[in-house]
């Protein structure tokens, strides 16, 4: 038997290719290009960052948003105030009876004012400042309209001083006498001190006058002086003095009893006073003295 010997394979070593040597100028150009690319990328990132920051500052900050809105509103208000078709030219007045619509409109100050600047509350206060107005409501309508609703003070009596006549409402406030009211009680002041429009007569004077008129509806006119209070000219040709106070009904009872006594004795008084009901007195006319 022949022996057989295997031959071991011989390992071949790989040959490593050596890189070709690069030209020095080409390598320098590549480095320059890489640097330019990097610089370009950095500049792009920088601009994007700046734009993002500006956008955040303008639109992301509440202060900037508020400023922009404020400027916009200011421009709208200014331009609106200069626009002719926003100037109030149509003012409707409701509830005026004794007052004229023109006087109410003039007092409100709305005519010719832009709705941008018109203040309904201020206009209402100006109208209420009129002595004849009790309440007032003002509404502004688009684009150039306004509505004023008033409730006038109703006269309960008339006040005359030195020939100048006023109406008096239930609160005693003097207001202009607009026209003749049939059946309105007239109080003629004998005082030198003159009351002014919008002022009020003394409460006790008004209370006593209305009470006396209620108990004696035939009384058309009363006289007032501070010393003797209220009096009236009795149709039987004498002056009756009642003073003031809320006890007019008791004074009337005493007054009528005193009149009945004088008439029974055929005595003509010149005046009768029940200013102090506990001590009534009278004065006789010349013809019966």
Summarize the structure.
By secondary structure, the protein is an alpha/beta fold.
Please explain how this structure is put together:
It is a single chain. Strand 4 and strand 5 (164-168) form a beta hairpin. The chain has six helices and twelve strands. By secondary structure, the protein is an alpha/beta fold. 19% of the residues are buried. Helix 3 (101-108) packs across helix 4 (120-128).
Based on the model shown, name its key terms:
Rossmann fold; 6 helices; alpha/beta; single chain; 9-stranded mixed beta sheet; 3-stranded mixed beta sheet
Strand runs, count: 12
In the CATH hierarchy, the architecture of the domain at 157-288 is 3-Layer(aba) Sandwich
Rg, please? 51 Å
Straight-line N-to-C gap:
200 Å
Structural class of the helix and strand makeup? alpha/beta
Number of helices: 6
Strand arrangement across the biggest beta sheet: 6-5-4-7-8-9-10-11-12
User: How would you sum up the global shape?
Assistant: elongated
What low-confidence regions span 5 or more consecutive residues with pLDDT below 50?
Answer: 1-6
Please write the string of helix (H) and strand (E) elements: HHEHHEEEEEEHEEEHEE
Beta-strand fraction estimate: 15-25%
Q: Which CATH class of the domain at 157-288 applies here?
A: Alpha Beta
Mean pLDDT over the full residue set? 81
**Helical content class:** 25-40%
């Amino acid at each position: 038997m022949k022996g057989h010997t295997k031959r071991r394979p011989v390992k071949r070593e790989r040959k490593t290719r050596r890189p070709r040597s690069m030209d020095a100028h080409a390598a320098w150009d590549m480095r320059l290009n890489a640097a330019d690319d990097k610089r370009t990328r950095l500049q792009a990132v920088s601009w994007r960052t700046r734009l993002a920051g500006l956008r955040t500052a303008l639109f992301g900050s509440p202060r900037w948003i508020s400023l922009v809105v404020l400027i916009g509103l200011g421009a709208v208000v200014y331009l609106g105030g200069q626009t002719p078709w926003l100037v109030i030219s149509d003012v409707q007045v409701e509830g005026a009876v004794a007052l004229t619509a023109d006087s109410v409109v003039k007092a409100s100050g709305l005519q010719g004012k832009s709705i941008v600047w018109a203040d309904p509350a201020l206009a209402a206060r100006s109208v209420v400042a009129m002595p004849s107005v009790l309440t007032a409501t003002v509404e502004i309508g688009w684009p150039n309209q306004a509505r004023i609703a008033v409730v006038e003070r109703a006269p309960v009596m008339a006040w005359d001083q030195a020939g100048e006549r006023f109406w008096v409402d239930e609160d005693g406030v003097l207001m202009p006498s607009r026209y003749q009211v049939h059946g309105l009680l007239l109080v003629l002041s004998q005082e030198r001190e003159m009351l002014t429009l919008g002022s009020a007569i003394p409460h006790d004077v008004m209370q006593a006058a209305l009470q006396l008129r209620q108990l004696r509806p035939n009384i058309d006119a009363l006289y007032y002086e501070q010393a003797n209070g209220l009096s009236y000219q009795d149709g039987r040709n004498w002056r009756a003095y009642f003073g003031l106070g809320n006890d007019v009904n008791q004074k009337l009872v005493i007054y009528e009893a005193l009149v009945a006594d004088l008439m029974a004795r055929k005595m003509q008084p010149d005046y009768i006073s029940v200013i102090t009901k506990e001590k009534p007195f009278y004065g006789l006319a010349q013809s019966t003295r």
